[in-house]
Amino acid sequence: MYRILCDSYVLYDPRLPDLFVLEPDLTQKKNEPGDLTFTIPKEHPHYGVLEKLKSRIKVYRDDTLIWMGRAIEDERDLYENRKVVVEGVLAFLLDSTLRPFTMDGTAAEVWTYILTQHNARVNANQRFVLGNCNLAGSVGVATKDYLSAWQNMKTSLLDPLGGYLIVRFDENENPILDYLADVPDTSTQRIEFGENLIDLVLRKSASETYTACIPLGAAMRDIDPESESDARLTIESVNEGQDFLNDSALASEYGVIFAPSGLTTWDAITDPTILMNRGRDWLNGTGARFKQTIKLSAVDLHNADANVESFRFLDKVVVSCGALCPEETYVLSELTILLKNPASTNIVLGDSRPSLIGEEILQNASVNNRVTSIEADYTTHGEIKEIVQEQMTQNTSILQSAQQIIMIALEDYVRTQDFIALQNTVQTSFSIMAGTIEANFTETASRISTLNGETSQQFESVRSFIRLISSGIVIGKSTSAIKLKLENDVLYFFSGSEDSVTTDSAIAYFSSGKLYVNDVQVLSSLRIGGYAWVPESGNLNFKKIAG
Fold it and tell me: Rounded to the nearest 5°, which phi and psi values hold at 275?
């Protein structure tokens, strides 16, 4: 559950019908303030309390403050509804202007100086509590212009070093600003094909990948007061007369690709050794990396089960999409939440480990019928969870050039109207689920019962199936104790799960033209070539019967 407050006034609480706003959407992006948009209807009891720049707008998830900002824009329509745009607290860093300064120190020292200078120049409600900074390495700064704290932080720290600006809040709801080399937390909720994934676009690009660079430092006139040269410091003096660096292994495979000079110019560096180290770090890190991002829509299962951890901005998230996207951990770098419909969560993930795919790939597993909301016509009950999952294949699809087919269910939620449509029907469905293709032939009969005082419908089903998996084919029936599994050179008769069947656990199996079985019962005769064991007159005789 999400709530919106303006200072101490409640603007939106889904539990209170009088306190509502229209289309409240929160977007958070890596190293950006983010924004919140909503419309206040004319009849809202707190319609006039919001003041641009002055009011503090807060978003709570349950009872936890997750985002804060200030209103910067509103517009009114013919009916006097107010559409409001709110920017996040990181935008406060634009409010201050720092004088030009020169500084050599660690990243933590430069970050502390910039933030301290900002706090000294703004009011109390625009200040940040200094949090943690764990970026390694030294930074040289020599500014000539009057820049905001944000501009200084971006040019001196974020652009050359990367990292994450993370806003959190203390017990008094004051913003704390951390500057971290990596995000600290990994979400316990995964994103998996067949579970909560709705839509996926995977992008891998080599358009900004480089195998060589020419590091450039400060202009010579800035290093030597007696010089008037605009030529920049290079690494020739410490790099055996060469002014460039290259990755010979990548260059031999992909070619020599020099980075634009604007990416490898550091105005504040006046020492050639520091410049060479900075250039090498950039080339081995940012420069040689192939960019990989993944944009997806997923159902946040926290909205169906409070015991499931909700997705949080700048958490690491494990994504597993079968053959389309092997299991990988990404940083949740962009998150858009429709506060009235939190089941629809749009997520952009990035900053994965380096990828060596040599061209841009766009893969889209969009679906025709997407789960975009948890609406009022959903019925839930723990006893029907397994039945629902038997009848509707979660987040599954067959990707075809002509069409895409999907049947989706959200945990133990199912539309009540869908139960009625499925009464006394025979349904054939095809699905792809976790990398398998399955043909289900389902006979269903419905019966009405009362569950927790509410009328629901349960289904009893008998299902036969032919399932194509990566290792072969499985044939069976849901009520049968024995199933068949055909692999390249083995036919198994088994019970239990097809994933664990082996020659040791199988009831029987054929392999290399031979049948293997523990116990054999012969009802008539047993023939071996031209001979047979034949029961006659109470005796078992072994005789020649042919050839």
Answer: -65, -45
pLDDT in tens, 514-541: 888 888 877 777 888 778 888 877 788 8
Task: Check residue 118 and give its pLDDT.
Answer: 97
Q: Which two tokens stand for residue 146?
A: 């009057």
429 found inside a domain? yes
CB atoms under 10 Å from CB of 36, counted, come to 24
Provide the residue range defining the domain that includes 165: 95-180
Continuous H helices in 337-475: 385-391, 416-421
Diameter of the chain by CA atoms?
Answer: 123
Phi, psi of 262 (to 5 degrees): -65, -25
Is the separation of the CB atoms in 168 and 131 below 8 Å? yes
DSSP 239: T
CA angle 196, 200, 205 (to 5 degrees): 145
Q: Using one digit for the tens of pLDDT, what is the confidence trace for 364-382?
A: 323 222 232 223 233 333 3
Query: How many domains, the chain?
Result: 5
Domain-embedded: residue 502: yes
Q: Based on the domain organization, do 81 and 227 belong to the same domain?
A: no
Number of Cβ atoms within 10 Å of the Cβ of 193: 23
Tokens of 538: 């109470």
Considering the domain architecture, whether residues 196 and 331 belong to the same structural domain is answered as yes
Query: For residue 40, how many other CB atoms are within 10 A of its CB?
Result: 26
> Whole-structure pTM over 0.85, yes or no?
no
Pairing of strands 191-192, 316-320: parallel
Would you mind telling me the total number of residues written for the chain in this entry?
547
Tell me, yes or no, whether 257 and 118 share the same domain.
no
